[in-house]
Amino acid sequence: MGRVKRTLTSDHLAKTSRYLGYNRYPDISDRKAWGSLSDELQRKLIKAGEEAVEEPWTQLLISDFTEFGKSGNRVRFEDKYFPRRRKLNNLVMAECVENKGRFIDDILDGLYLILDETTWCLPPHTSYERDGAQERVPDVTRQIIDLFQAESGAEIAYTEYLLRPVFAEISPHISIYVNERLKERIFEPYMNQFFWWMGDGIQTMCNWTPWIVQNVLICALTREKGTFSEEEIKNFLQKAAVSCDYFLDEYGDDGGCNEGAQYYTHAGLCLFGCLELIDGATKEDSSRYAEIDDDGQVIVHDPGRKTADQACYETFAGIYNEPLIRNIANFIVKMYVGGGYYVNFADCSALAGGRTAREFLFGKAVGDETLASFAAEDFRRESDKEQIISSEINLFYHVMQAFAYDEMMAYPVCNNLAEDSWFESMGLMIARDKTYTLAAKAGDNGDSHNHNDVGSFTLYKEGRPFVIDLGVGTYTKKTFSDRRYELWTMQSQFHNLPTFIDRSADGGVDKAGDLSDSQRNGRLAFELGNDPAADAHNTHIVMQKDGKKYAAKDVLCLLGNTGKEPESWPERALLEMEISGAYAEKKVKSYKRKIALNKGDTVSPVVIKDNYEGSIPAYMSIMTYEKPEVVGNGNSNAAEGLSKNSFQNADGPCVIRVGDIGTITAVKGVKSVLIREFAITDQRLMSTWKHSVYRILFEMDEHAGEYELVLK
């Protein structure tokens, strides 16, 4: 979308008159507040702290840091970097609840280990320009604020804030050291240097913007009174507000996050973090979320809502009434399928994680009971460790979770279901009935964390994955390089899209021997996907290109019938588009796709209709999680020169059974079917897909021009 030059955050900040610190949550000295947490929660937090004591502190070596530059492996460093932070958070929460001092020595060990790290940046992020070359070893003379420099700053800042009274009794040098590190690594570079994620109106923003800004604000707004003047706090807030507005420029009015449901956690929710911190720092009344009334009951303040005796709450908090902010907040509900699955695309996983107090409080802030209830119900389904987010590295989130915990446990269930959605800003349709959840994507291939997937779709049946989007594997140096699209998960051939084979192009296929053009074509189709990196450079293989200009055109979304259909027709959701432009191949003149959910139709509930005009053969990929098998209307004779075990002719309609979940019927236009198994060996992919995935490759009849699949 084009730049709209939003000033939403800055406009609401301009309504405020005071610029204070942020202390809505109590430090350890407020025993009344910490004691108000339920006994159950306190037991869980103390247990997590006791378990953390038994874990060894990891040792970070410079060779761990330099490994990324040598091999592209970032996991070796991260597997030692993140456990320190998780352990420290669990220790701090346990001490705040118990207040006996038995975790303090371990806390100081962890705090000083992090303070003494040469840099808080991750190795892939040590570049001074966006997508620039990384430093092989940290440059201590010029600080870089990346995601985790900011996260680490927020962690030590909030640790010091929560335990400041205890540290003061031990030595003033603890807080002095923390403040010196924050000054060196956060405050001075933030106020005096430009980083691309701050925004300039030219570069596109992504989740880095609110994620980092939120953590810088945590650092600044939790400093002891007098550290910054009111004018200096104002400068922090104004600079943060401008960056938030640049981030909001990337959104359409529908609030769609083009990074997907998983990145909503770092995009929309970190935006909420920014707004919450600004709101809390611009009010005369610095009341906390949790207070105790005269009857001993916990009262959780609801930011964004004004009552007669809370007039001061309307200033900046009025931003929560903005439709854009409300739409960004409830995006996650619209993406939910069920059973932990979410509609996914780009680098997003289909298992996008559990919901927490952040979604809950965001829902309450914008007055969205469905979101608040959805978050609370999802939270209640989690394990004890997940309910106290013991693996989370942001300490601020731990405290938010603790002080919303008891209310979330008791929050009423809302039975409102997500309605069909059309996110015009990114060309995403989501449609549902009692059996199916269908998602289809038009858009372009210029998304943040992009995969080449214009025109692809996913389908869930009764909450189970039927037709899938793989997501992304473990991040390496290659993932964010100019070789990104050599990775199989990024390529259109591993999405639910056509691939074309041009045997007349130069290079790629050995034309020696007596094979006919058809046989050569079939051989390459049979080998398609064996070596995705080679496929990316094979001039015979035509896949989608990456970039914003490779986009769907003539897009039309219809949710519900137009009123012109016969009364007997089922209600439907339909997405139409022309996707040939995503391939940048003149021989692919036109490729029109229609994707429809016919609600309640038991004969043809989900229909894919394609019309192709071009001079090179098309092969349609359909990715499934369960094993597909041809079960009807295709003979068992293999095509000439191809494996009998995997390739079958389809004379007329061909029925493919996909595990025990359903069937895919090639109604027209299909010549043959090739089913391939792809093992899942990558750790990140294995967290979603517990076994192999499968690709059904349909050879389309080049004389037909019209192809139709029915899924049910």
Provide a descriptive summary of the structure in words.
With about 700 residues, the protein is an alpha+beta fold. It folds into 2 domains: about 10-320 and about 355-410, Alpha/alpha barrel (Glycosyltransferase), CATH 1.50.10; about 420-710, Beta-galactosidase, Chain A, domain 5 (Distorted Sandwich). The chain is about 35% helix and about 20% strand. It has an 8-stranded antiparallel β-sheet, with no helix packed on it. It has a 6-stranded antiparallel β-sheet with strand order 12-11-18-24-23-20. The two termini are about 35 Å apart. The model is unreliable at about 285-290, about 305-315, about 505-510 and about 635-650 (pLDDT under 50).
What key attributes describe this structure?
712 residues, alpha+beta, Glycosyltransferase, Beta-galactosidase, Chain A, domain 5, 8-stranded antiparallel beta sheet, 6-stranded antiparallel beta sheet, 25 strands, 34% helix
